[in-house]
Amino acid sequence: MASSLKCSLCSKPATVHLTQIVNSKVHKLDLCEECAKAKGVTDPAGFSLSGLLLKASLNTEDAGASPRCEQCGFALNDFRKTGRLGCPHCYETFNALVAPLLDNMHKGTTHTGKVPQKALARKSLYDRLTTLELDLSEAIKTERYEDAARYRDEINQVKQTFGGKPAE
């Protein structure tokens, strides 16, 4: 049977368990309820990520003066309680507070997504092929046949890399 954890500060039974990762190292702290309250770790309303992140910035604001979203009526206090915004328009309304939070949590505020390397290579070849075909058409229209032959050769080379049939 597993033994109960003791408070890291006073050796009473621990009821609050915190885990923090700093520089890829895990730091665990087990606290009894009294020590947790003394350290300001517990909150009777429960933890919320937004509350922890916004704690410093919201302490100076007056709850009555907080802005509300025009679309859904969501207030800053609602965000503090739930950790979520009410609608897409809330991002514009609360941008001054939300943007720095997102920037700190992520590598920026713009979603870049991920693209598989093979798909990226195919897209690059496809874009190059499209450009060369347009250049070939233009060269033929303007009767620059040496350029057209060079574009044709490049198109054949790209198509071989791409796995397609050479142009004639």
Strand content: 5-15%
Mean pLDDT: 76
Q: Strands of the biggest beta sheet: in what spatial order?
A: 1-2
Sketch the topology as an H/E string, one letter per element.
Answer: EEHHHHHHH
Using the alpha-carbon principal axes, give the shape: elongated
Query: What is the count of DSSP helices, taking H or I runs of 4+ residues?
Result: 7
Poorly predicted segments: 56-63
Secondary structure category: mainly alpha
State the end-to-end CA separation.
78 Å
| Rg, Cα atoms, Å | 30 Å
Helix content: 40-55%
**How many separate structural domains?**
3
Biggest sheet statistics: 2 strands, antiparallel
Count every beta strand, where a strand is a DSSP E run of 2 or more residues.
Answer: 2
Give a written overview of the molecule.
It contains seven helices and two strands, in the order ββααααααα. The protein is mainly alpha-helical and 168 residues long. It has three domains: 42 residues, no CATH class; 64 residues, no CATH class; 46 residues. Strands 1-2 form a two-stranded antiparallel ribbon. The longest helix has 25 residues. It is elongated.
Structure keywords:
168 residues, mainly alpha, two-stranded antiparallel ribbon
Please give the structural blueprint.
Elements (H helix, E strand, L loop, with lengths): L15 E7 L2 E7 L1 H7 L9 H10 L17 H7 L7 H4 L1 H11 L11 H25 L3 H18 L6
Antiparallel strand pairs: 1-2
Helix pairs in contact: 2-3, 6-7
Quickly describe the structure.
By secondary structure, this protein is mainly α.
